[in-house]
Amino acid sequence: MLRLYDTRNRQVQQIVPDGARSLRMYTCGPTVYRYAHVGNLRSYLLSDLIRRVSERQRVRVVVCRNITDVGHLVDDTELDPAGEDKVQAQARAEGRTALEIARFYEDAFLADAAALNMRPPEHSPRASETMDTTIELIAKLIGKGHAYAVPDGSVFFDAASFPTYGEISGNRLDQLRPGHRTEGVDPRKRFHADWALWKPSDRELTWETPWGRGFPGWHIECSAMALKFLGEHIDLHTGGIDLRFPHHEDERAQSDSAAGHEVVKHWVHGEHLLFDGRKMSKSTGNVVLLRDVVDEGLDPLAVRLAFMEHRYRQQMNLTWDTLRAADKTLRRWRSRVAEWSEFPSRPMPADQVSLIEAAFDDDLDTPLALRLLRELERDDSIAPGSRLEAFLHLDQILGLDLSLDIGRSRSLPAGAAELLEQRERAREARDWPAADRLRDELAALGVKVADTPEGQTWSAFWD
Ligand code: AMP
Ligand code: ZN
To answer: Which CATH number does 3-270 carry?
Structure first.
């Protein structure tokens, strides 16, 4: 069964308990104010890979991945963010409305997700359309004494009311200092580490509440959407490593305080993607978009493959060379699969396939899984029809469209078909010197032959 590194418990743990048949997973979705870069996409691919591995084990997976279209402020790095909403700031910059911006970049994100073969989540709520639930949740937290409204219409979470704050990131309340931007303690707060659940405002995208008109904080939105769509017992919550604090700490405090128990069993985080040695991030201008990859003539799924060459919880440095290498491997595998599909189907090599599946189960050891897959690719002692079935089966986890070239005619250079036929006959006649000579002649034409128990196969050196 799948084991993953749990950030809060600081160990690798089994995710779906023995005998359980379902997995409920929440993934913090995109803030839709710009194109997602491939670093962001790495975080979402983690969730898709977990889904695919679990589904292979006949676990029914229910995923909620939200769309943040309101409430995420430009500077969310401090415990008490204040300032402009990311979507509204972009709307101003582009001369469009906030909703136009949000829907445009949501569509762009969904197109990227589809190009990367991410399975669509069962629930993709927009924060702006889940507002009743968010407001009810805030009211509940006030009613239970975990939050308080102040005269200007803000509502704050009372951090001290949640003593286990900090278990995910290690940032305990007594170690937190007041934010430097607020220069001391915000006088509206009881305690400097309290954070806003509701902010007063009458701009676009604001709602009426018992405390006044305004909009919610980003953290409470995720709690509300997770509780509404997945309920009070969630197996797994994923996101990029930077979301550990404050976003996930705040989410945990809110959800657990509302439910009266631990809501999320496991927190799993993906490490950052670097590009040319630096963290990929818009603020430093160091970004690659999926369409940049396509503009380079590469298959978008080369990104998916390149990411799997590293484990999700290692930082990974992406370069154009690694992307080109992944693209080449992808094309070769598709061509090999097409070549094997011309042979009779045979049962999968059970031992090899279960070793590869075990690597995925072992905290998503994708580098090992790919190494074993390459060994299987080259193992000519295994019938082509058997390798075919293994690759097609494993592609349900890999998501690389490995069957894409099946049925596409593979073209041989002039004269090669005749040489292949002569060689087949030489093999039948056990005339090994002739078979070797013909192999060399074919190689000179760029055609590589391999002998398998079921006969010879060919592939092109240029693939
Ligand atoms: P945002 O749209 O800014 O809320 O970020 C979306 C997701 O991308 C979050 O889960 C972040 O943790 C994640 N993320 C941001 N930068 C990177 C990066 N360089 N590598 C991997 N994940 C990232
Ligand atoms: Zn979230």
So the answer is: 3.40.50.620
